[in-house]
Amino acid sequence: MSRGGLLLFQLLVALVFFGLWQLLATVPIFGHTVLPPFFFSTPVNVFNRILKWLIEGTIWRHLLVTLVESVLAFVIGSLSGALIGFWFARQQTVAAIFDPYVKMMNALPRVVLAPIFALWLGLGIWSKVALGITLVFFVVFFNVYQGVKEASTTLLDNARMLGMSERQLLRHVYWPSALSWMFSSLHTSVGFAVVGAVVGEYLGSAAGLGYLIQQAEGVFDVAGVFAGMIVLAMFVVAIDLLVTKVENRLLVWRPNAGEGTA
Amino acid sequence: MSRGGLLLFQLLVALVFFGLWQLLATVPIFGHTVLPPFFFSTPVNVFNRILKWLIEGTIWRHLLVTLVESVLAFVIGSLSGALIGFWFARQQTVAAIFDPYVKMMNALPRVVLAPIFALWLGLGIWSKVALGITLVFFVVFFNVYQGVKEASTTLLDNARMLGMSERQLLRHVYWPSALSWMFSSLHTSVGFAVVGAVVGEYLGSAAGLGYLIQQAEGVFDVAGVFAGMIVLAMFVVAIDLLVTKVENRLLVWRPNAGEGTA
Amino acid sequence: QAQDKIEKPDLVLGVGGKSSLYYLPLTLAERLGYFKEQGLNVTITDFGGGSKSLQSLIGGSADVVTGAYEHTIRMQSKGQDIAAVIELGRFPGMVLAVRKDKAAQVKSFGDLKGMKIGVSAPGSSTNFFVNALIARDGVKPDEVSIIGVGTGLSAVAAMKKGEIDAIVNLDPVMTKLDQDGDIVILADSRTDEGNMKLFGGNNPAAVVYLKTDFISKNPVTVQHLVNAFYKATKWLEKATPEDIVKTVPEEYFLGDKALYLSAFKASKPMYSTTGIITPQGMQNGLNLLLQFDPEMKDAKIDLNRTFDDRFVKKAAAGQM
Amino acid sequence: MEAGVTAGSTAVALDDATVAFRLADARVYTAVEQVRLSVEHGEFVAIVGPTGCGKSTLLNVAAGLLRPSSGTVRIFDSPLAGLNREAGYLFQADALFPWKTAIDNVAIGLEVSGLARAQALERAQAWLTSVGLAAFGNRYPHMLSGGQRKRVGLAQVLIRDPKILLMDEPFGPLDAQTRQIMGNLLLQLWSADRKAVLFVTHDLEEAIALADRVVIMSAGPHARIIGDWRVPLSRPRDISEVRMEEDFHALHREIWSVLKDEVMKGYAQSSQAPVEAA
Amino acid sequence: MEAGVTAGSTAVALDDATVAFRLADARVYTAVEQVRLSVEHGEFVAIVGPTGCGKSTLLNVAAGLLRPSSGTVRIFDSPLAGLNREAGYLFQADALFPWKTAIDNVAIGLEVSGLARAQALERAQAWLTSVGLAAFGNRYPHMLSGGQRKRVGLAQVLIRDPKILLMDEPFGPLDAQTRQIMGNLLLQLWSADRKAVLFVTHDLEEAIALADRVVIMSAGPHARIIGDWRVPLSRPRDISEVRMEEDFHALHREIWSVLKDEVMKGYAQSSQAPVEAA
Ligand SMILES: Nc1ncnc2c1ncn2[C@@H]1O[C@H](COP(=O)(O)OP(=O)(O)OP(=O)(O)O)[C@@H](O)[C@H]1O
Ligand SMILES: Nc1ncnc2c1ncn2[C@@H]1O[C@H](COP(=O)(O)OP(=O)(O)OP(=O)(O)O)[C@@H](O)[C@H]1O
Ligand SMILES: [Mg+2]
Ligand SMILES: [Mg+2]
């Protein structure tokens, strides 16, 4: 499908979605409103709110805070996830010993940890970044770990026979073969980084989209809540586009549909 | 390393961890307690609490509730993630159109959605299961989607030439080649399913480990909070062992270190 | 006898933070078996916050909520009919304090200008409380920096770390900080004189509220419910700390029993003894809202619809 | 399509087929150009040519896995759209399913066509025996040697009994003796119901011994068919015996002289830049 | 180890090497048994044997990738522990790095040994030219034909100039003419500094034409070395010319008669259950 056609279809989906929402929130079906506006507001209200934010400019500061937190959480979380994933995959003994602990940590409810983060890191951006990291880290870690273990044994044998040291193996074999694994996890992580930041803000902060959302929720301003979430979503798609760019750049070597015959 | 040796080392790690915790929480260093017991309790207190729970038997009911929620979230989330992942990978047009929306949804802070889940699903286990599903789904989805796309083109060509229909391709090629991707995501998901359930309970419930933790936190009973988290962690390791069993069973065909020469 | 039949013996009760002292009467009614006594089977669901328990009531997943009186006013402006049936707390119990090392600088509320103030959550009643106080000295809400710090450990952590200069919060957070000598209290709405000074009288806090049509459809059920709460209120009025220790689940203060008891002592005056919200109290509650929520300004509020005193009166009559 | 399968009809017909690959930077590499090649029903055609000339590319085109940039492909006189469902294709590269044992790899072709698993396995075992791997049925591919894997692949394709066989160096990693056994097996099958076979090999002797026609390709890029010989040897043949005949050697010499020059040319050419702008 | 590399020393010595693979169900498949094989410094040894007999297994053992179940491996008279760092190994299977272009694949061996990238690329380009792929340097492996990939692999191994060359059917997917060119290239390199070469092939003529010694293996399981011929042809040789000599044909006939029987035996054997309990 052409780029234009695709965009058209995507817009159509959005339109249908918002149309249905407006309909179900305003027109009662069998005397019963499917999406009571008390809980769902209406798209019109939500858009008005976003518009107002944009015009008044109040949103930018909050958006910037959340952006910084998300990007930091994403970068630090995925870097450390990838590094430790690599390390574990190469150090089978270390991996075997720490395996149950990693899994336990992955299961700790981060929300409960918020006070500890606040204690250690204060209420500034770093406690939110920490929350984001705890989500991003595990997604990337498990995938990179598996990706490294999936590297083809033939290629590894060849690489070793070509005289590669452990470090060179990492660079020339493990890293490229774990790349597609890593990128798959990065797509999941982008979302989680933002969730971490927003939830962190939601649990204690002075700015950010999570703060906005919570403030709206406190006064039962559902339009505000949804407006915050929609801004958030837009923003994630923007970051994800970047990740996809990098991915396509790094994975040029793959056979893909685009090639074929002229 | 032998199984026994491994277990020994694992225990050692736990001992060092708890030892350090006890030390830093009770012995002041330069007149300053690194882990003030008000925020961190001490391992001794925490274990006493767990012991008490076990003896009094209060914990079992809560554990069961959380178990049911987690398992449901895990099963439903990963099944639907895998199915929709497969479907998207095979329907490139659908995937292209919905791609940005899936990513947006992945970025919605689930905590904010809690009232909506309560509205739709009531206050029973299902609203917690829903929260778990929203975490598990995306992790599995992105990995299965990528796993299917990574299937070797040579194998696919061969399978097509052998007369496989789309459904047979799924079963005989895509499914086995996406398996290791799926299992990698399942290891991440086990943790997330539990996190979802617990956070759901934490945000509103009448039973479960999350409820226990919340009650404890409300009265500054840090020992209770940590005791809850430790029970939780144990419990995740148990579920994960099951996943690993299934994985080893399904991936027998792989060349592995265990084979080699006699 | 037929009219005495309980229409709906199985009730789901929502609460935001059951273990806090704010909701102690609920815990007592449950622990002392008053619901059972009244032939009710109450499932208590605990939520992360008061707004969530309200939402569950509106959404229909909870039948009754113990929450802030303020919600009944707010919901009227949103076209949702809910009404309180008994008052549990007559004072909000909120306390405003500044960090010890800042105390010298802060002589009046106006001196908070430019400071970082921790509230339980932005948009919550603690937020409005501080807004109201600084407004008296002519400081606008956007001239201070409001930070959400929660109502639990994170609030304590934030103050101890020096992340915030002032805090508005409830017990046990405030008692903890006070005991540890981290703060100097500026305004205390746990006590009679504190409330007189701040609001000129009562300012109803925790109440039991339900949807109005639920009340009219299930009057007997509501009566029994109120009976139970009323009895708990009475029990509490006479309770000594030892009684509390015996009744409240041990987990509630295992963290620090002494702390819990001093917090209880500090908070005791705030519990309602009559269960009745006075008109003065209603007006005080509304005034607080009017001052800061722009959306409330144009709303027409009929305060009489926010509280249905029939049931408490009957319960009180039955008791005596 | 079924109706078109009559003796004498053309099984595979490439008409002026050109395949150009798009490279990076919008450049284009024309692998084969204007290839006109037909395989009659029941005919055994061998393709021989220098490495990299485009033999596999032609098989991919005939299989419907690659659409030619220009020209047409007809299968049993109907234009080919999508996959060639009449064909079985033994790939040059290893294409066994690593998660299936040898016997499952062979049986899969029958299973997907709806045969009960038990029967499929039974016939697969018979096929494994034919290719000399009766005892290796429950090995996964990574536990087999290169030649064993190739033979499993052979059984995998042959068991489905396709009307058209596309084979890309099927006997490459086999020793000379096993090659002959496999060659005889193939001839035997082919003569039983006269399939159309398109057979790529680097072994000219093998090509002559097996085929009705031997087609020679020029070196790429722009590879074309530069020779097409009919093999004058009688059927049925035994591969090892046929090599003793004088006709065999005469033909071999004739083709070889053409082929040798072509390889040298290809060797020289492929050292220059073989691309043009799109 | 460097000290041991003197003319006349033994480059590779397998002594009573037995390799048994553990199968599922604790069964064991003994691929090769009691193999005694040595390659002197500067010697070119070809291994020929029926498919699946254990040729690749022996190379893996010599490369240090597989530890024999019993027996010893000595490289330049030192016992081999871990990888054989003196050897270059051209694998039977495709082992190019799919994420590197052809030239990067060739250059990597130099790069890892610390040579500057620019120089490594320059030398890689020269090697690509030697194997006839000068113009294909910036292609990724999936854009190359089977034979082209093999030649890139060849360049990848040869560029490192290892003292021991292990080659598993290096010329398999090449046409006869290219095979000869590559064969001559290999001989030329080898004679320049007398490497030890262990060369697996299915083409007996090629084995004789290239090697100093031709070793024949019996069919598996329990494959052993059943023949070891010294090739009496003079050096330097030109592969295409050497085939005209009478000695060549005599030796070929002699080896062939042994080999032929062995293949038939292997064919029969491998159809029975070739496993024993562990
Ligand atoms: N995807 C591709 N992109 C670009 N060029 C390609 C691609 N696939 C093949 N080629 C080129 O097309 C030519 C023909 O390739 P093909 O695989 O058909 O050769 P072949 O005759 O089978 O060679 P061999 O005998 O070595 O297998 C080669 O030069 C190859 O480099
Ligand atoms: N991992 C393994 N597990 C079990 N058996 C194996 C394994 N690897 C190889 N074998 C068996 O060992 C024998 C020798 O294999 P090898 O690959 O060395 O044969 P080869 O001589 O190289 O054959 P070819 O000429 O076909 O490549 C074969 O019968 C094979 O099935
Ligand atoms: Mg080819
Ligand atoms: Mg081999």
Description of the molecule:
The complex is a heteropentamer, with two copies of chain A (262 residues), one copy of chain C (320 residues) and two copies of chain D (278 residues). Chain A is mainly α and 262 residues long. Chain A has two domains: 1-40, no CATH class; 41-250, MetI-like (MetI-like fold), CATH 1.10.3720. Chain A has helices at residues 3-26, 37-40, 43-56, 58-90, 92-106, 110-121, 125-149, 153-161, 166-203, 209-218, 222-250. The longest helix of chain A has 38 residues, at 166-203. The mean pLDDT of chain A is 84. Chain C is 44% helix and 17% strand. Chain C contains 16 helices and ten strands. Chain C has helices at 24-31, 34-37, 50-59, 70-77, 125-136, 153-160, 173-179, 192-199, 212-217, 219-238, 241-247, 251-254, 257-267, 279-292, 294-297, 310-319; strands spanning 10-16, 41-47, 64-68, 82-87, 95-99, 116-119, 145-148, 166-169, 183-188, 206-211. In chain C, the strands form two sheets. A five-stranded mixed sheet of chain C has the order 2-1-3-10-4, with helices on both faces. A five-stranded mixed sheet of chain C has the order 7-6-8-5-9, with helices on both faces. In chain C, helix 5 (125-136) links the parallel strand 6 and strand 7. The longest helix of chain C has 20 residues, at 219-238. The two termini of chain C are 21 Å apart. Chain D is 36% helix and 24% strand. Chain D is built from eight helices and eleven strands. Chain D has helices spanning 55-63, 102-112, 117-130, 146-158, 176-193, 204-210, 239-242, 246-269, and strands spanning 10-22, 27-40, 44-48, 70-75, 78-79, 87-90, 164-168, 196-200, 213-217, 225-230, 276-277. In chain D, strand 1 (10-22) and strand 2 (27-40) form a beta hairpin. The two termini of chain D are 36 Å apart. Classes of the chains: A mainly alpha (262), C alpha/beta (320), D alpha/beta (278). Chains in contact: A-B, A-C, A-D, A-E, B-C, B-D, B-E, D-E. Strand 1 of chain B pairs antiparallel with strand 2 of chain C. Bound molecules: adenosine-5'-triphosphate (2 copies) and magnesium ion (MG) (2 copies). One adenosine-5'-triphosphate sits between chains D (21, 23, 29, 31, 49, 51-57, 92, 220) and E (143-148, 173).
